[in-house]
Amino acid sequence: MGFGLFGKKAQTPSGSSLKPGGLTVSSRFLKDERLSSDFILGAIDDGVVMFDRAKMVHLFNRAASELTGWAPNEAVGMDFTQVLPLTDAKGNPIRPEEHPFIQSLISGKPVRSNEFVLNSKSGKQFSVSIVVSPVIEHEGHPSETAVAVFRDITTEKAQEEQRSDFISTASHEMRTPIAAIEGYLSLALNEKITKLDPNARSYLEKARASTQHLGMLFQDLLTSSKAEDGRLASNPSVVEMGEIVEQVTETARFKAKEKGLDLKFVVSSDHEVNGGKVIRPFYYCFVDPIRINEVFQNLIDNAVKYTPEGSVTVKLTGDIDTVQVQILDTGSGIPSEDIPHLFQKFYRVDNTATRTIGGTGLGLFICKKIVELYNGRIWVESQLGKGSTFFVNLPRLTAEQALDMQKTQSSVISPNTGA
Ligand code: ADP
User: Fold this and answer.
1) Tens-place pLDDT, residues 379-408
2) Which CATH number fits the domain that encloses residue 60?
3) Which residues form the domain of 220?
4) Best mutation site among 223, 300, 348, 388 for ligand 1, i.e. most ligand atoms within 8 A of its Cβ?
5) Are residues 393 and 289 located together in one domain of the fold?
6) pLDDT over 80 (residue 138)
7) I need a labelling partner for 360 at 20 to 30 A (CA). Which of 9, 87, 219, 311 fits?
8) Same domain flag for 295 and 389
9) Ligand 1 atom at minimal distance to the Cα of residue 332
10) Same domain, 201 and 311
11) How far is Cα 250 from Cα 227, in angstroms, rounded to an integer?
12) Is the C-beta atom of 302 inside 6 A of ligand 1?
């Protein structure tokens, strides 16, 4: 092929051969001419395309040709933006720096995406899953070449949408009867209305707690399906994060105390210490207070939930353009292999500690969606057995910006849509 990908081989003890690039092949592979890399690339049912920094296509397999409508001999030598024109999910052309091929070449790292729509030669449009991997020619040098593998995921996307619609409708419909059951249970438990023997009261209290849990579960399902397709209602306003985070911390104090945990709220100052007294800075952000409340409530609840003993500390800090909230715990910690998946929908760490603790695996997914709604970032650092720290960064407003925005805000009455 002439790109140095499948070059000289080195023998390994078992009779298999380790080729440059980390590929190991058997001796049968080496002897059988039909198993050459060209045949394999031709047999792969996903589109495979190789290109360089000048955007020129150098390799185009059979599946790539079937998907795009460009014959391999037409595609090779052309600009990849012509052969594989991508748009966003709404059909808008993407900026050059957003193209996953370019991103991968610039960063020197693999890039994966399921978000783009590919336009074929005849104008057919379909959603594609793309994985772009730079080919490392010399360690430590930016790569000149990259390989992309892509496939049509239109059917999967449609099924995902149907599933999300179903979850959204079902959870919305089920909230009404659950609210009714909860209401009647509260009436039954009201001492002014009914007389109950202690056993009956204890059963009804348990039933009410489970109904409340079910109601929260459906609320989470509804929020997550809305977050997924960008329908999450948000009414942002100027918010002082210190106030919000302190309030949320206070609401978790009862649960923390019940478990014997020490719950602390710390604000670090970027201001001068004045006469021995630290001036607490104001950390302003433009976010929906209800939504952002949800994020910190979830993170603090989790910290309390997954910490059998020790402490939970909520720290507020920031610099000129960022507000950072850290939630530190001395709990079970998270295995490193689970960390990359933690913010995915329904993901729960499967170990004895977490198996006994109830949850849906939706909380962190919702947190991430909300934080990203405000151009923020959420991530975690953790050590198994020692504890975890969840970080949330949000864009910070200067006091002047906050004041200006507050002035315009008070002169505009915004409709409250709620989710
Ligand atoms: P849930 O808590 O309902 O299972 P989340 O999405 O909030 O769902 O969290 C996903 C998983 O991440 C949890 O099941 C748990 O395994 C892990 N996790 C979250 N927060 C912590 C924490 N502070 N310490 C240890 N594990 C955690």
Assistant:
1) 999 999 899 999 999 999 988 888 888 877
2) 3.30.450.20
3) 157-228
4) 348
5) yes
6) no
7) 311
8) yes
9) 25
10) no
11) 27
12) yes
pLDDT per position as a tens digit, 171-220: 889 888 999 999 999 999 999 988 999 999 999 999 999 998 888 888 88
More confident residue, 90 or 21: 90
Euclidean distance between CA atoms 148 and 134, whole angstroms: 9
Q: Indicate if ligand 1 lies below 6 Å from the C-beta of 348.
A: yes
Predicted local distance difference test score (pLDDT) of residue 20: 65
Residue 366 alpha carbon, nearest atom of ligand 1 = 6
- For residues 256 and 139, membership in a common domain is answered with no
Tokens of 118: 């590919």
Q: Would you say residue 419 has pLDDT above 60? A: no
CB of 329 sitting under 6 A from ligand 1: yes
Residue 224 corresponds to which amino acid?
Answer: S
Count of structural domains within the chain: 3
Minimal-distance CA residue to ligand 1 atom 13 = 348
Distance from the CA of 188 to the center of ligand 1, in angstroms? 34
Q: Tell me if 146 sits within 8 A of 132, measured CB to CB.
A: yes
> Are 244 and 221 within one domain?
no
User: How confident is the model at residue 270, as a pLDDT?
Assistant: 52
- Matching residue, tokens 């930016």: 142
Binding site membership of 364 for ligand 1 (Cβ less than 6 Å): yes
- The verdict on the CB of residue 306 being under 6 Å from ligand 1 is yes
Q: Tell me what pLDDT residue 197 has.
A: 92
Of the listed ranges 8-12, 51-55, 180-184, the one predicted with least confidence: 8-12
Residue 38 lies in a domain: no
224 lines ligand 1 (CB under 6 A): no
Boundary-marking domain end, from 152, 180, 212: 152
User: Is 22 a member of any domain?
Assistant: no
333 CA to centre of ligand 1 in angstroms: 10
Q: In sequence order, which residues have a C-beta less than 8 Å from that of residue 60 and are 6 or more positions away?
A: 48, 49, 70, 72, 75, 76, 83
Exposed, middle or buried, 249 (CB in 10 Å: 0-12/13-18/19+)? buried
Among 392, 387, 395, CA closest to 377: 392
| Residue 394 and residue 301 in one domain | yes
> Residue 376 in 3-state DSSP?
coil
395 CA distance to ligand 1 centroid (A)? 25
What is the residue-averaged pLDDT of the chain? 86
CATH number at residue 167: 1.10.287
